[in-house]
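Internal tracking record. Fields below are filled automatically when a chain is submitted to the structure queue. Please do not edit lines marked as system-generated. If the sequence contains nonstandard residues, flag them in the REMARKS field before resubmitting.
Queue: standard
Priority: normal
Entity type: single polypeptide chain
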Amino acid sequence: MGDRHSISATTEAERTSSAPRVALIWLAATMTASSLPVGVLIAQLFPLAPFLWVVLLASALFAAVGIISIPGFVYGIPTMAVSGRVFGKPVNKLISLSNWMSQLGWQAVVLVLVVYILRSVFDSYGLLPANTSIYYALVLAMLGNFVVPIIGYKAIVTAQTAGALFLALFAIAILVYLHGGQALSMTPAVGHFDGIQTLGGTSLALMGGAFSWTMFASDYSRYVRRDTSLAGMALWPSLGGFAGGGLILALAITLYVHGGIQVGPAGISITATGLGTSALYLGFCTFAILGLLASNFLNSYSSAFSLAVVVGKDLNRKKFTALDAVLATLVGIYMLFVAPSFWDSFQTFLDLLIIVAAPWTGVMITYVLWDVLPEARGGLSRLLHRRANVWVFVIGVAVTVFFSNNPLWEGYGAHLLHGTDISPLVGVATTIVASILYRVLFCHHTATDEQGQASALSKLVVSKIIQMGTDDGKNI
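SYSTEM-GENERATED OUTPUT FOLLOWS
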């Protein structure tokens, strides 16, 4: 990969990666501390949910990322370029702009989390005065955020993968030390679980997990060798996301239950006593910080494809990453010092992200399974009904808003569920069902059928011309 974000198809020379290596990228992308606030919110808002089932179900739905990885592998283009085929360029530019802004928001959240973790370390060991530690933490986080882009993409992927594996080891050690199985029991302490809260917890996990990644699924599969099977291309990213996302989410809930993560108006604090030993604490914080900084570079790498689709041209990677770092820093400073509450900002951000991501994911899953797979297997090439896809997407957005609940609004659907937000599940289900119904009811022919019709018509025209020529010859 060079220093430009190209939205053109990858060449055969560039396709040197493998599906297991893509799985490691997704393991590294999901095995970061950005899931800590998600786990805290799940434990706070849905205490009657069986946390283990929530973790397993939300992680299993990372299969959506695996499915949407397939077009990148088949066509060699990034996710937002694939999206342009489904929705058409004008609408897709709006979707891509929304996607870029959501990734910019994630970069700001990651920066804030790095600041909180650094402040926690400073405060736990009394290294700096408590009233100034956050400013020192911000300076160090900003320095890391701007230095990382200089290192380069391959070095960052390697470093993040290694860091994610070490973080996974620390996470497993902490879960064992804190008896994580007790915090993640399939049955809450009250002896029964609430189905609505289970759906609410799963939806929240999807907002900060699988459904926040689907719009980048094909960005890495486009570099995989063509001799890879379609099943392997879908399976390996799913496994990487399942392992990384599930482990860090389980750790976040366990830490909160055991007091290792403390929350309040000032944000998040990770306490040394809550993680067991100093070695576990410092190891976890170190690799969490390094992983977060590296993930910001990958976030910027993927979000650049979205902006490239919006502007319609390739972008310089290093310049764009530096621009992202500036904008994310400004948003992060707002969340730290201006916003009334980090938690309100974070919840609002997740809901705004999912309004587009969930219905888009449903349309794309149907497109891959119904259209891309048959074509990739040498079967029929189906026509793309972009106008219908747009209307299905709009309906999905409306339904998602209807079931959303956040500091800005409470949809009537969420109100009927006593404030529980299940908008991601409803949004993706709506567009999948609507897309399938449209195809079953109104799409009875394929592009191959039209080619056959055109071929038959051309043969008829040619035969008529030949016949006319023969008749003219006879008249002569």
